[in-house]
Amino acid sequence: MKIWLIGEAAEHEADLCPHLRAPYDVVGLPWEAATTNAFDDRIGAGDVVVSLRFSRQGGAAPPFRLLHVPGAGLDQIDLSVLPANTLVANVFEHETPIAEFVLARLLEWEIRASALQYSFTPQTWARQYRNRVPHGEIAGKTMGVVGYGRIGRAIATRAAAFGVDVIAVDDHATADAAAEVLPTGDLDKVLAVADYLVLACPLTSATTGLIDATALAMMQSHSVLVNISRAPIVDESALYDALQDNEIGGAILDVWYRYPTPDDANPVPSARPLWELPNAWCTPHSSAWTTELPRRRYAAIADNVNRLAAGEPLRNVVHTGSRRSAS
Prior knowledge:
This protein is α/β, with parallel strands linked by helices. It has ten helices and 13 strands. Residues 323-327 have low confidence and may be disordered.
């Protein structure tokens, strides 16, 4: 059995190999291997492929045993091109850093500690002290969370610890100590009361464009939209217009509408220049990207490879043959 690490996954061989029970042949391939058949003749029926994206133009992929996605999202995986017996598994481990990122950004949104620090000088501090401008606090605010899975729960737990009232929207989750949970049909009610609206749902046909001009108009004028899920959940132009016209207070954006590809290494992330707006805080999809994250993720992938070799049940299987099952 060989393990093929495609694209970015090839950078994490050192995170994977120490956790493998056997000295498998681990081979890195370029991004093109995820979307073309240029390397298909190298991949054997008993092999494992690790890749964030997988598709084929005009044909099926060759037989192999397991496609392991080194993340949670499957929106870049075309399941229809996979052989019937190929398993697909994903991996999480990102909920903690994403939750920390969201709380850090919202705390900074309210407190503006960085601005206070950078404006401090011994020559001007006394005047600044006498004329202090009050800043905000997150305690007592209401947070709406769209999607109450691992990420949503991690965010809610930390927000509740700061005294934030959390209302989640999810058709498949139940309430817990951190949040009340409403069905997605009640999203309008949440939009109307949320000081912060955090998007933590997967990108599907149902959630694409979920936050459109109508939804944004339902939000309060001071509300802050936080998107750490997938950009297309929010209508691109509607968001820009709402921010530019101050229809909402602001947006914290860590995910984008366009990403680098083999054909375009440096795309403009959005058709509208959101990053030019003072009330849009933009970061390069880095909310989860801690030093510890790939170590945890590739340890989990190695565990599944070991299980596969031993004939044991895999963790986090999301697709088997023509049937899907999530765990």
